[in-house]
Amino acid sequence: MTKKVLGIIGGMGPEATVDFMDKIIKATPAKDDCDHIHMLVDNNPQVPSRVQAILGSGESPAPVLIQMAQNLEKWGADFLAIPCNTAHIYYSEIKNAVNIPVLNIVESARNRILSELPHIKKIGLLATKATVVTKLYHNVFNEDNIDLVTPDEEQQQKVMEVIFAVKANQLTNNHLQDLREIISQLVARGAEAILFACTELSVIAKSIKHINVPVFDAAQILAEEVVRIVKG
């Protein structure tokens, strides 16, 4: 039986894409090379900034994302994944431009959290400013009467500094400490769980320890969804 081929719309950022691939590999039950998932990857760091586009200072990345999706379909992908939360602001445009399924990281995260914590009412969200401003996650989680707690303006700036430090390979212990303090404040404001909803934060998620509530990583959840689809 022919196995499904995954197409990855990547490069946002490059390390986050490689980390996503690593998550898929580690989540795959395999005894040999042939047991792993066939991935076609467009790791394109030239995609215009999603954050700048949403905040009004840059061009839309939608045309590039659509072209990447169409290329991956042409190259033989059976379904697509986008390891960038903010890029899902353009999810409908990408989905409508191809004839193969496109996984949705936001819906995957919502479904996983509700399956594990069906009575949860408040989640702390760590994401880019663009993801927060557009209410990408809020709109989905609010359908299930779940409130999302986000950092205040000063804290959100620190979250962005952490994200760009990962992109630039300049992460320091001070960045990690800032993130721990922000998480503690989200929990103090009533968050019953924390959701890492930026793939740069997913890269460092395991470095953030001693959190006293459940922690969910959207990229890890998406990777496991890929494995479920291909391996059953």
From TrEMBL:
Kindly report, in one word, the top-level EC class recorded for this enzyme: isomerase
In this entry, which stretches build a coiled coil?
none
* Record carries keyword Isomerase: yes
Q: Which SUPFAM superfamilies match?
A: Aspartate/glutamate racemase
> Can you provide one Gene Ontology molecular function annotated for this UniProt record?
amino-acid racemase activity
PANTHER family referenced in this protein's UniProt entry, alphabetically: ASPARTATE-GLUTAMATE RACEMASE FAMILY (PTHR21198:SF7), GLUTAMATE RACEMASE (PTHR21198)
What this protein is called in its record is: Putative amino-acid racemase
